[in-house]
């Protein structure tokens, strides 16, 4: 018998991610949602921002816009596009097929998510640079917070997508099942509306929504006005949500279609 | 660990599988498959074949009983078993927008002992369709792609769930040739099939399942040997069953008369046929539609299905 050479997980992840990237490229509506929405939406909320008294809150339009853009990237490039991808792969029995092989369950989920997460990351970086140049936001004051927020936001968005896919039966119904988190996050997590524009009590509660801490870290990195304690609380909250989501996915994720 | 130590490559003991709704699809079956053997699971739809195979593939956990593949629990010890197994599911499982070559390349990246993807496609005769999207393949071509992926990792144990369903006659024979070649190379194969000729041709041993249980098992010859041979013919007008030599003396164990058509069952086909033909020769009559046949797997299969009907009538 030939010596057993275990395919390293990295090689398997690359193979899965490559296939998934090819599929993403061939799905026009997914490309539009993933690439254009995060670019277009923030600018559509700009007129509303112009009417708010941002200066009083110590915010600039540029920083609010770049935060919104990153948030939309989490929601559309990663979250909603991945809900569809997971459901489509499950309904085509691709997930079941993959599970007959050597790929472990976490690798299947991560490999499928990698392209969308990379798109989200690249998009956020491009937006950050573009805003710095065009809207004079300047470089982030505390870049490590922005990077931490980005990474936590991307991972959490992917985990929440897998969780949403668990109770989504068809690719069509993914349009509906993804809505609650999309709306909740846009309104409450400081994406379409800055957290400061919310009433204080509401803002206190909304700070604990899944994507709020990641957005907070991203923006705190730009403004440099997040205390060490605040940053720690935000990071811990984001981490807690991620752990919770991963646990829920392990428990409830459906690998095969319902019959 | 040395996989060669396990002569029983697959071992199933008192396996039961129960679905969420409480339906008991597999009701306590035991069998084993030896190294280099082709073992076929036969049965009508809903007999529990796929439910059994899914447990062996490690996709589902048994409700009770013990399953070992290469000495390991395929569900709990996934990573110890999977590098050595190849699986062909009953239905596809490929992204429809990938091409054949892209699908094979993805799978090759996911197995540790992969053949070159082109080689796997050549084995199943799909090399000319490499650049075609999966959604444009015919049903038969999808089966071939599935087979290509199953053998891509040079498996020691191959699970084929209805490998030739949807294939034309030529495709079916190609698949059989490939399975034989793999078996000759030492691969152990467990397959399920609806086609009795497939099992008869290909399997070293087989089991016929009915309602979650194994109703008969053995080599194709052993399973058929349990069944009687048959003679049927049409009696000319003016002749009746009573004109024949005493059936007991011919070694006939049972008979049916349907109009002028007579059907006899016997375990001594030569004796019964000789007695009948000698009688006809002497009486100077022609037995039209004469059909003399040894027991076949098909009859064994139908016999088992009929037992079920009888039970239902009795119940």
From TrEMBL, chain A:
Its main location: membrane. Residues 29-252 form the ABC transmembrane type-2 domain. It is found in: Cell membrane; Membrane. It comes from the Bacteria. The chain crosses the membrane at residues 61-87, 108-135, 141-164, 176-195, 231-249. It is a multi-pass membrane protein. Keywords: Cell membrane, Membrane, Transmembrane, Transmembrane helix, Transport. InterPro entries: ABC-2_transporter, ABC2_TM, ABC2_TM_bact-type. Belongs to the ABC-2 integral membrane protein family. This is Transport permease protein.
Automatic annotation (TrEMBL), chain B:
Keywords: Antibiotic resistance, ATP-binding, Nucleotide-binding, Transport. It is found in: Cell membrane. It comes from the Bacteria. Residues 10-236 form the ABC transporter domain. One of its GO terms (molecular function) is ATP binding. Its main location: membrane. It is a peripheral membrane protein. PANTHER family: ABC TRANSPORTER ATP-BINDING PROTEIN. This is ABC-2 type transport system ATP-binding protein. The lineage of its organism: Bacteria, Bacillati, Actinomycetota, Actinomycetes, Kitasatosporales.
